[in-house]
Amino acid sequence: MEPQEAVRQLEYTIDASLDEIGQRAAAGYRPTFERVAERADGSVVYDLAGELSQEVVDGSCPTPAEANAVAERVLDDWAYTDGGE
């Protein structure tokens, strides 16, 4: 998954779950997705989008800083299981 696709997916999720303020927040995740895409593959971007989408569905709208923390955890998991070869 490309970073812009991940942001778009989150925008759809946020749109369905929160108000317009939440929708604008999704664009703030773009640098996080781009950083993840540079360090890992598209499956990790997809995993991150899924985790952030689940938080939104659960009623939370993570800040960009919180999204960065989730990204670091997802990257660590990937490096330990898949990327660490």
Please tell me about this protein's structure:
- By secondary structure, this protein is mostly helical.
- 80% of the residues lie in helices and 0% in strands.
- It has helices at 3-17, 20-26, 30-39, 42-57, 64-83.
- It is globular and about 30 Å long.
- The model has no long low-confidence stretch (mean pLDDT 80).
Compute the CA-based radius of gyration.
Answer: 12 Å
* Average pLDDT level: 80
Structural class: mainly alpha
Strand content: under 5%
Strand and helix order: HHHHH
- The percent of residues in helical segments reads over 70%
Total DSSP E strands: 0
SS field, number of helical segments: 5
Quick structural overview:
The protein is mainly alpha-helical and 85 residues long. It has 5 helices and no strands.
